[in-house]
Write a structure and sequence with these properties.
Number of helices: 4
CATH superfamily of the largest domain: RlpA-like domain
Order of helices and strands: HEEEEEEEEHEEHEEHE
Strand content: 25-35%
CATH topology of the largest domain: Barwin-like endoglucanases
Distance between the termini: 31 Å
Number of domains: 2
Number of strands: 13
Strand order of the largest sheet: 4-8-5-7-6-9
């Protein structure tokens, strides 16, 4: 779901858009047969921050409100990387204004995000198939629990997530605030490698602490738990994981279950 900057403070319009971003289906887009050629990735370049869509400066950063919840826009996208669930939006919003007052084109490589400055370029990697794209964030949303980015129809097509409507992804900002390595675009036909995805729910230097976390999960009915010994940094870390997770539905249910146990910072791991 996304709201233009002029909509952010209009409650009636917010209610009208309340259903957006709750999980898209193939009915929201024309289908792959209608795209004669897929667009190339967005090409990152330095851009001035948009005067629209970055919230009102209230002395603690740009802020805006949607559905009685306040969101704060990041001062910078530097070092931003997050893993979670991506959704997508298509013809229902095609031709409408985005939050920074550009026209949304479902066939361009764009995206919506709740907190990144507008515009920001990000690399999105599908954790299920390792496909990767670069998109330009020019919109706000999705305002749905447990969703971190809303992709355009074309972007979702390139990540092969149209059929399911959502996917587990990694989002990494491409930042120009300081010198960065040259961004290499994804190959046109990237190799596809299936990955196993786990949810990490703790990392401990002492194995006994990891075993206590494992026992707590088991006693609470959380299945498929394990302890992974990580010696990559020299000292052994005992990482408690749940999985593998097969799809977004499983992930959503697991996150809700973990929140009920007071675990609010699960992290997606791929192997």
């Amino acid at each position: 779901m996304r709201l233009s900057s002029s909509h952010l403070f209009v409650f009636a319009l917010a209610l009208a858009l309340a259903g957006c971003g709750s999980g898209k289906t193939h009915r929201d887009g024309p289908g792959s047969a209608n795209i004669l050629s897929m667009p190339g990735d967005a090409v990152p370049r330095p851009e001035a921050r948009s005067k629209y869509g970055n919230g009102r400066d209230l002395g603690i950063g740009g802020q805006y409100e949607v559905f009685n919840k306040t969101y704060t826009v990041m001062e910078s996208s530097a070092n931003y990387q997050e893993r979670g669930v991506a959704s997508w939006y298509g013809k229902k919003f095609h031709g409408n204004l985005t939050s920074n007052r550009e026209v949304y084109d479902m066939y361009e490589m764009t995206a919506a995000h709740k907190a990144l400055p507008l515009p920001t370029y990000v690399r999105v990697r599908n954790l299920r198939n390792n496909k990767s794209i670069v998109v330009r964030v020019n919109d706000r949303g999705p305002f749905v629990n447990n969703r971190i980015i809303d992709l355009s129809y074309a972007a979702a097509m390139k990540l092969d997530m149209i059929r399911d409507g959502t996917s587990l992804v990694e989002v990494t900002a491409i930042n120009f605030d300081k010198p960065t390595k040259k961004v290499v675009s994804s190959p046109s036909n990237p190799s596809v490698e299936s990955s196993r995805i786990y949810v990490q729910v703790g990392a401990f230097g002492d194995r006994s602490n990891a075993e206590r976390r494992l026992a707590m999960l088991s006693q609470s009915g959380v299945s498929k738990t394990l302890i992974h010994e990580d010696t990559a940094s020299g000292a052994t870390l005992f990482r408690v994981r749940v999985g593998p997770v097969e799809n977004v539905t499983q992930y959503d249910m697991l996150v809700e279950e973990l929140e009920g146990l007071g675990i609010t910072d699960p992290y997606l791991i791929t192997e």
